Amino acid sequence: MLLRLRDIHKSFAGAEGPVPVLRGVDLDLAAGESLALTGESGSGKSTLLHLVGGLDRPDRGRIEVAGTEVTALDDSGRAALRRGTVGVVFQQFNLIPSLTVGDNIAFQARIAGRHEPARATALAERLGLAPHLAKYPEQLSGGQQQRCAIARTLAARPAMVLADEPTGNLDEATAEEVLGAMLELVAETGAALLLVTHSQHHAARMGRRLHLHAGRIA
Hints:
By secondary structure, this protein is of the alpha/beta class. Helix content is about 35%, strand content about 30%. The chain has helices at about 45-50, 75-85, 100-110, 115-125, 140-155, 170-190, 200-205; strands at about 5-15, 15-30, 35-40, 60-65, 70, 85-90, 160-165, 190-195, 210-215, 215. The strands form two sheets. A six-stranded mixed β-sheet has the order 6-7-8-3-9-10, with helices on both faces. A hairpin with a 2-residue loop joins strand 1 and strand 2. Helix 4 (about 115-125) runs antiparallel to helix 5 (about 140-155). It is globular and about 50 Å long.
């Protein structure tokens, strides 16, 4: 099992004290499996994704990724996990404005020591970015920027991809194209995929789905 979550709890500070967001979540994800995590706004979907990616810590519980207990890692250890094992695709793209498209695609793989120019080029071609490699992010459409973010994540060959509403800023037609390309490429790598989405249609394209309600798996 690539990912194991056991009894995950997380609260955030509120005006009148701690506000519970996750209330004892258990979840398993196997290598090569795709899972949609759905739920209303505020149900804890993005919070759970951030905990899995080591971007935050749970108040209680255990998270294991590829045999490593994420909850026991310090900041540098969790950063190393994101460089080598876990790739994250955000809704906001998070491209580096001062780098070209080509350099953005290669960025994560270079940090991980896995940069393969031929792979980066192949990903750019598959995602329709080959004519735009010398451009900068601001010169791309929203769909092209998200394709660049996906290519950057996959170029580093992560064992697991976390995608937080990756098409949330795109129009419906572009979202369908971008999601389809991401699912196809992730499947080819054999990576696991955990997708946070509000869309039941997008969730239906995944291997299975779980629904979060009031901080628990419903």
